[in-house]
Amino acid sequence: MKHSILSLITLAVFSISAQERTLPVDTTIITKHNITVKGVNFSYTAATGTQPVWDADGQPVASLFYTYYTRDNVKDRASRPLIISFNGGPGSASVWMHIAYTGPRILNIDDEGYPVQPYGFKSNPHSIIDVADIVFVNPVNTGYSRMIPNKEGKMPDKSLFFGINEDIKYLAEWINTFVSRNNRWESPKYIIGESYGGTRVMGLSLELQNNQWMYLNGVILVSPADYKVLRVGGPVSSALNLPYFTAAAWHHKMLPQDLQSKDLLDVLPEAEDYAINTLIPALAKGGFINENERKDVAKNMSRYSGLSEKVILQHNLDVPTQFFWKELLRDKTGQTIGRLDSRYLGYDKIEAGTSPDYSAELTSWLHSFTPAINHYIKNELKFDTDLKYNMFGPVRPWNNDNDNVRDNLRQAMAQNPYLHVLTQSGYYDGATTYFNAKYTMWQVDPSGKMKDRFTFKGYRSGHMMYLRYEDLISANEDLREFIKKSSAKGKAAKY
Fold it and tell me: Which first-to-last residue range defines the signal peptide (predicted)?
């Protein structure tokens, strides 16, 4: 009887302790690997772990999960570039570019980016680890990153982390610590951000310079989200969508034959010109537009979008993207098209309606990314934890006040003659469209005095253009070229 009671007590103790899932605040796991990139085989080291975020009193308030890749046997580490990589959301883990774009391992997917089984990963023969070391950083509540309770068990105030400027401030502090710990102050430094990560790294460019005294060689914007356009609405925001409509309609063969017979890159300049020079002025007139002009604009919008003149007029020439995703193929196949990548197709419960039931592309991506990243971290990187890997973590409410990141980037560039900017966008991205990204690039420096330090690259895919194998190759090559172009090469930082 005593033995039975003791067993029950022991079981209860273990059950209670097993329910406690905690993150090691400061730890590193080192693993060694090999890879062949562009025909050259070499070894590299992966450092996977956590590094704290401290408050003003030096107490840890959060710990960020990261993976840091360095090529082995590098004679001059000081001249080797360091790339600091973020995804977006806000609330997204740094998983997408990690195991599908620049990192040494990529998903098992087909050449167009669709899931295949068995799930998992394979070597990335196009990774930029041949020319740069890379650290993938997960902001608070994404991946395995978490807030840390104080000695009394109380969690820190969420407002320390969850906002445009709050996010930038604590991440800049974290980057400073990381660079110091890993002895990378001498290295040329780059920050790359995808989607909301574009907002993040634009703001970080100035925060790092002004408050961490860390100067960058490059800022890389992958399908960047510019909320100065996305959230404000109005004629400019609406008109900038038209070239994306053209690209998606071209892909699904919904354009008039004279346009459909041309290559995509021959069609898009027409739509871009119409959007800037005709559609914005027309939308600006609102309900006071001349009726003949209204009908003429609807006719041309129909030509460049694949939608009927009727539905365009019903929307007063201002067609929401979510309606476009639902409408484009409604009468052809009854399918919806993807938001982040409009090559993807979905089926709704009913064909009627104004927006899709779900994002066809995102469900496809989660299908392949989630098992791959969990398997990779545990089995190859040897980081083992019972914590859930948050593909998307709880970061709401998010403080969007005082969004000045576009001007932050301009000021950082003005202060730092070394700083260059590369934008990479997919033509079929309907969330952060390629033409919106071009517009952002044009608006950063209204003077035009620094325009030779901006580069734009477009790809025949969507938000994560690198999922398409052809674009995985070209996008990584574009990164190599950008790193080469933005290298100081011994030149002084002066005008």
Answer: 1-18
